[in-house]
């Protein structure tokens, strides 16, 4: 029971500090960096998906050409 009470107390303290930092504006730079990271990740994922799609289309065309020549 002591561990539960200690855990709840620590959790409340962390939430209080995070809220205080947010209200003071100290987390704005972190939010901006996270937003930039997510934007880059989405862009890179979209590029990789497009490359995979084009590669699959190329392989399909090669197989069709090979089968058509026989």
Brief characterization of the structure:
The protein has 70 residues and is mostly helical. 93% of the residues lie in helices and 0% in strands.
Features:
2 helices; 70 residues
Architecture overview:
By secondary structure, the protein is mainly α. It has one domain. The protein is 93% helix and 0% strand. The chain contains two helices and no strands. The model has no long low-confidence stretch (mean pLDDT 89).
As a whole number of angstroms, the C-alpha radius of gyration is 26 Å
Oligomeric state, counting identical vs distinct chains: single chain
Mean pLDDT: 89
For the record, give the distance between the C-alpha atoms at the N and C termini, rounded to a whole number.
77 Å
User: How are helices and strands ordered from N to C?
Assistant: HH
Total helix count? 2
Helix content: over 70%
The domain count comes to: 1
The low-pLDDT segments are: none
Largest sheet: none
How many strand elements? 0
- Which structural category fits the helices and strands? mainly alpha
The outline comes out as elongated
Percent in strands: under 5%
Topology summary:
Elements: H1 2-24, H2 28-69
